[in-house]
Design a protein that fits this description.
Layout lengths: L1 H5 L17 H12 L23 E6 L4 E6 L3 H14 L1
Length: 92
């Protein structure tokens, strides 16, 4: 990531998702839906060695500090968002 950022190849950042009763993967799914990205995890379909540029999401602006991550203008699809909402409602 440092190399990509320093050479303006890919603007990216890492965020730390705190361990909140095991909801880390759920937060990652939310971020992926809001940015049009794909979750990379051995538990899911996509593994790290199979990642391509098309799996990255985008947003107009992402503000990150030690406590918050704000995503503005994420490239989400309404269909994916609706599916995620239904998935969350089933868990409640």
């Amino acid at each position: 990531m440092l190399y990509n950022n320093s050479k303006d190849i890919l603007n990216c950042c890492a965020i730390n998702i705190p361990w909140l009763a095991g909801v880390q993967k759920e937060v990652l799914k939310d971020i992926a839906v809001m940015t049009g990205a794909t979750v990379v995890d051995n538990e899911y379909v996509l593994k790290l060695e199979d990642v391509e540029l098309k799996h990255f999401g985008t947003a107009k602006l992402i503000n990150v500090d030690e406590n918050f991550t704000n995503i503005v203008g994420g490239a989400y699809s309404q269909e994916a968002l609706d599916k995620r909402i239904i998935e969350i409602k089933r868990q409640i």
